[in-house]
Amino acid sequence: MESSTTRDLARALKDIAARLPVPRDELERAVDEARAKINAATSEGGVVLALPHQFRSDVLEYLKRYHSEVESLAKARSSLSKLRKHISNKTYPASLSSIKSPSIQFSHAFTNAPTAEGHRGTYSIAAGSAATTFEQAVEVAVKGLKDEVLRRWFSEKEREITFLEQKASAASAIQALELVVAAKHVQLKARWDYLSGTDSYDKIVADIDAHAATSHALAQSIITKVTAMVLDAEDERLNTAVRKMDLVEPAVKAASQANTNDLSELKKMVASLAKKVELSSKKVSDNLFRLLCFCGGHLSLSNQGGKKSGGDKKKKEKGKKGKAAQTGKQKANKADAAKAAKAKDKGKGKAGDPAAKSKQQGGKKKGGKK
C-alpha cells in the first residue's frame, strides 16, 4: 500500500513537471526525516532548516508573511473572546470603563429642594419604569451608551475575523507555498541552461528536481506547523489575560463599593444623615455611630501625624543648634591654644637674648639707686 510520503512525492513531481528514477526510497527517507525536524522546530527559522538550502530563503520570506496574517487572525479571535467574557460578566473593556458620568453641579439649595414641591425635574429611564432624578437618568444614559458601543464592537470584530480568515486560510497557504517552490525550481534550472545537452547538466537538473520535489512534498507539514505555533502562542497570551480579568475585575468592583477614608466620603455621609427625619429610629442612630467612628479615626490619624511631624521638626532644630554650639567651642579652644603657643615662643626668645638680660640688669640697678 502506498504511503502518504509516496503520494506527496508523486504529486510534487507532477506539479513541477519533473521526472525521477524509481524506486525513490532515499528521497522518501529524506522527506520523513525533514518532517521530524519540522515537528521539533520552535520557530520559522527552525522549520526552514529542514529544507534543501537552495529553497530556504524563498520559503522563509513567504512564511514571515503568512505568520503575520495568522497572527492578526489569532489576535482578532482573542479580542472577540475577551469581549464575549466582558458581555457575560457585565463589565467593560478599559477603553469603555474609563467613560464616566459627567460631573454636573447645581446650587446647594436647588439640589436639596424637597421633591414634593416639584422644583426638581423627573425623567423616565425606560417605558413603563418609574420616574427618576436627573443624576440617575444621566448614569443610566451613560451605561446605555457603553452597552451599545460594546454590542457594535462585538459585531464588527466578528466581521473582521471573517475577513482575516480568508487571507490566512491554511489551504490557500499550502497552494501558495507550492507555487513558491515551483518558481524557485524553474529559476534554479535556468541557471544551468548553458550546459544543456551535456552529462553534467542532466546530473545537476536531477539533483534540483529531487530538492524541489522534497520541498514541495513538505509544504503541508510546514504550513501546519507554523499555524500551530502562532495559535499556541496566542492561546497562552489569551489564557493569561483571562486569568488577569478574573482577578482584577472583582477587586475593582469591591474597591468601588467600599467606603474610602477621605473627606469626600465624610461629606456624603453627613448629607445623607441630614436628609433623615426620624432621628430617634435605630437606623439613624446606627448611622450616627458609624459617622462618629469614622470622624474620630480620621481626626486621630491626622493629629498623630501632626504631632509626629512637629516633634521631628523640634528634634532637627535642637540638633542643628547643638552642632553649631559645638563647632563654636572648638573654634574658640583652637584660638586660645594658638595664642598660648605664641606667648611661650616670645618668652623663650627674650630669656635667651644677652642684650635683653643686660637691659634687665641695668634697669634693676637704676631702680636700686633711686
Q: Which strand-content bin applies to the residues?
A: under 5%
The rounded Rg comes to 46 Å
Biggest beta sheet attributes:
2 strands, antiparallel
Amino- and carboxy-terminal Cα gap: 156 Å
Helix content: over 70%
**Number of separate helices:** 13
Shape: flat
- The residue-averaged pLDDT reads 78
Q: Any low-confidence stretches, pLDDT <50, length ≥5?
A: 302-309, 348-370
- Give the strand order of the largest sheet, numbering strands 1, 2, ... along the chain: 1-2
SSE topology string? HHHHHHEEHHHHHHH
Structural class: mainly alpha
- Domain module tally: 2
Number of strands: 2
Question: What secondary-structure arrangement, pairings included, does this model have?
Answer:
Elements: H1 4-15, H2 25-40, H3 44-48, H4 53-89, H5 94-97, H6 108-111, E1 123-124, E2 131-132, H7 134-167, H8 170-190, H9 199-217, H10 219-257, H11 263-274, H12 282-352, H13 354-369
Antiparallel strand pairs: 1-2
